[in-house]
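User: Some background: our group keeps a shared notebook of sequences we're curious about, and every so often someone picks one and asks for a predicted structure to add to the entry. Today it's my turn. The entry only has the sequence so far, pasted here. Could you supply the structure so I can complete it?
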Amino acid sequence: MGWASSKVGKEITMIYLDNHATTKVDPLVLSEMMPYLIGSYGNPSSRHHSFGWEAERAVECARERVATLIGADPHEIIFTSGATESNNMVLKCTNSHKIITSPIEHSSILKPCEWLKTNGYNISMTGVGNDGVIIADGMSTDVDLVSIMLANNETGVIQPIDEFRKLFSQSKFHSDMAQALGKIPIDIKKLDVDYASFSGHKIYGPKGVGALYIKDGTDNCISSFLHGGGHEKGLRAGTQNVPAIVGFGKACEIAKQKLDSDYWHIKTLKYELRNRLLDRFDLSVKFYGESASTLPGCLCFSLACGSMDVFLTELCKNVAVSSGSACLSLSGSTSYVLAAMRVLEEEIKKSIRISIGRFNTEKDILNTVDYIVGALEESLK
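Assistant: Of course. Here's the predicted structure to add to the notebook entry:
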C-alpha cells in the first residue's frame, strides 16, 4: 500500500494496520467532497442564493445518510467536529450531576468526568471483567446519566449496551459508538440510547467531523455547547464544515452498502493473522478480549519480545501499528484498558494493537507476520 510522505513526490511503502486510530479516506468519499471545496463553496445558512441552497441540500443529504446507517431519523443527528466533542457535549450539557461510566472508556469520556468530579459532580465507575466486558451489576441506579461505549478502541470488545439500558432504565443513557460505526450493525432504536457519538475518520471519511445522535424528544434536555448562531437546531454554533460533512455522509452510505462484505473480509484477515502468529510463536503470544464478542478487525496481544522500544521501532519501519490507543500514546502512558482487565504490567508494556481495515489484503497479513518475526529477532539481540 503506497502512502505519500510529507515530502512531495516521495512514496513510502508501508502496510497500514492502525485502522482504529484512523482510516484512509475512501476515494469515493474524496470524490464526493471535492465539488464543495472548489465550486459549490456556499454557506448553508445563506438563504437568498443558490450557493447557500446547494450547500444546505448537501448537508441535509449527509444527515440522512448518517441517520440511515444507524436507523435514526435525520432530525436526530447533530453534526459536530467528532466523537470527542459529542462526548463532551453530553457530559457537560445535560445537567447530569450523578454519572456512571466505565474505566475503559475513551479519554474523551474519562477526562471530562475527571473535570466534572473536581467541580463537585458525583462520578461512579463500573467494574470490568478479565474478558474486557463491563460489569455494572449491583451499582446504584439512582443516577442522571450512564455513559458506556459500544465497542472498545483497544481490545475491540463489544459491550452489551442493551442489557445496561434495561438496568438503568430510569436514567439518561449515552454511548460512544465511534469505533463500532460501520464495523457492526447498529440499530439505535433497538438499543434505546438517548445519545450516541460518532466520528467520520473511523469509517473512511475525513477527520474533523462527526455527529451526536439525540433521541427524539430528548433535545430539550441538552443545552448548547458552543454559543453563536443557531446552527444545528441551536445546539452547535458555527458554520458547518460542508465538505467534511458531505464526506462523512458518503462514508456512511458506503458503510451501509458494504457492511456485510467489509465485515467478513476484515474478520477473515484478522483470523489469518491470529492463526499465523500462533503458528510462529505458540505460547509466546497472548491475545486479549478473545472470550468476548469483538469487532471484526481488532487484534490486541502481547509478545515475549526483548526491548519493546526496539521491537516497535523495527516493526513500524514496515507496518503501522499501535501500542495502546493513538490518544494514549500522546501521554506516554501504558494501557489503562488492559490494566482494568487485570493484565500483568509486564504484558501491558509488551502489548500492541493491530486493526485491520477495508483496504487491507491477504498479502499485507502474510508480510506483517514476517516483519513481526524480524522485529522480534532484533529486540532479542
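Suggested note for the entry: The first helix runs from residue 27 to 33. The CA atoms of residues 40 and 156 lie 39 Å apart.
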